[in-house]
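URGENT: need a sanity check before tomorrow's submission.

F., can you look over the Transposase family protein record below? I want to be sure the sequence and structure line up before it goes out.
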Amino acid sequence: MLFYRAAVDLSRSTLNYVAGLIRRRRKAIGSTWRLLNPGRQALLVLVYPRKDETFTEIGAGFGGSATTAWRYVEETVMLLSARSPKLTPALRKAKKAGLTHVILDGTLIPTGRVRADRPTSPAGIGCTG
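Structure tokens as predicted:
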């Protein structure tokens, strides 16, 4: 496998914010050693959705395995989602502000697992709808 350096359009403040979350989490759980320091883990996690690379590719780019890259992404997404506003308080805030409409936004992520997302019959045969 060949490696290359790449650039990603992210701010230093975003990287520092995510790295701070990771740093505090590691301190709270008493984590003594990880392959990547909090800043590099944050960069891996922020690069992952931007570069559309597999966990194998992104892991190799940071000197680790696909499993390590996956664990880092899962851990950091959990930390970020814990900081996100919850739906009920957000709707109350919007109502209090006099808003009549609220747009809930999501991100569609292309995957190669279309078949795996289809319902199957009890016999494991694909169903069509």
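My own read: The radius of gyration is 19 Å. The CA atoms of residues 91 and 103 lie 11 Å apart. If you see anything odd, call me.
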